[in-house]
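Work Package 3 (structural annotation) set out to generate three-dimensional models for the target panel prioritized at the project kickoff. During this period the team completed the workflow that converts sequence records into discrete structure tokens, so that structures can be stored uniformly alongside our sequence database. As a representative example, we reproduce one entry of 165 residues exactly as it appears in the project archive.
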Amino acid sequence: MQLEGSCHCGQVRFRCQAYAPVPFLHCYCSICRKTAGGSGAAINLGARADTLKVEGREHLGVYRARIGEDDEECRISSGQRHFCTGCGSALWLFDPLWPDLVHPHASAIDTPLPRVPGRVHILLDSKANWVEVPRGKHDIHLDGFPEESLEDWHRRHGLLDDTGE
């Protein structure tokens, strides 16, 4: 599915080909909550990195999150969170550990996205105490990460575009 997205101020526009375009996985970790400026529930889609085309690249910033470890040490994430330096909109995540993939934030997508047959709410052990998490009939709630990948979830629901087009 061809996705087109932009930041709020319009200085950055992008497009890419998504193989996993359904916004089902809602993350409530502190990184997503703070970088997206809300309650959490950042939603990343799966796209092919080689299809990413960007206008306004000079207005991009990249943030690499600091991740606290169990031994209270901190490491820098390899994930590169791209955002507009003009308005701060979160746009996509790219991680060189998976160079074939890019993960656009559903909140930055202007293309109408497919309806969700169910949502998976993750990292609830990190959510802010004031956040109310939806509890729909088909919602799944997890304190950590799901065992099922973004790709596998789409495949199980018959929503994966693995044609390579």
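The mean pLDDT is 90.
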